[in-house]
Amino acid sequence: GQAAAAAATPKLEIRARGGGRGGNHVPGLTEAVIAGGMAQIRELMARAHANRAVGSHDMNEHSSRSHAIILVQVEGENTRDGNKVSARLNLIDLAGSERIAKTDAKGDRLKEAQAINSSLSALGDVIAALGAKGGGGASHVPFRNSKLTHLLQDSLSGDSKVMMFVNVSPAEYNITETLCSLNFAARCRNVKLKKGQDTAIVQKCKQKIQQLENELQALRGGGETKS
């Protein structure tokens, strides 16, 4: 399916790529350094929202026809030892799953609905695989089956922390969609992400190893030990 990344960039084709240590990314997006506080954040979000695909159908006059992902990169530096740390916050608004028979979607709206449902189905497969993996089941997680899940791989892997809110309709007319959404939420609760190594501990271990290597080198060469 199509994943519309929320960034202050004109509409572009989404092509998720592996980004090494920085995680998956989309070429061509605009990055902005936040220096103007909330006013700048609101302005950027408004520009990003304008890039989202929206359309009308029989159930919603202003239906989101795309997913939105807002990427917030936070970086910090320890003023005492100079160590730098970084983290990324992904804020994601998924387009709703819709039954084509109810929306009476045609043409472009039909293609969009099919793409949305396909990407949400891929997300469901990823959640199911993650749940099975945590219980000793499947080892392969199909992140690359969809651009959406490819972009969300960092958020659903390792020691990431995830909060998911599922919106449902109280109307009896939407009982099928509501049950599907609740079942999806129940599967999400089964996912247990593995906690990674604490970065501070890892850093101290690396420093200790370097110190020992310096001492060993000094002993071999008869020189002074480097601190």
UniProtKB/TrEMBL annotation:
Positions of transmembrane segments: none
PROSITE patterns per record: KINESIN_MOTOR_1, KINESIN_MOTOR_2
Keywords, comma-separated and alphabetical: ATP-binding, Nucleotide-binding
Stated name of the protein: Kinesin motor domain-containing protein
Molecular-function GO term, any one: ATP binding
Family under the similarity heading: Belongs to the TRAFAC class myosin-kinesin ATPase superfamily. Kinesin family.
The organism of origin for this protein: Heterosigma akashiwo (Chromophytic alga)
Coiled-coil boundaries: none
SUPFAM superfamilies for this protein: P-loop containing nucleoside triphosphate hydrolases
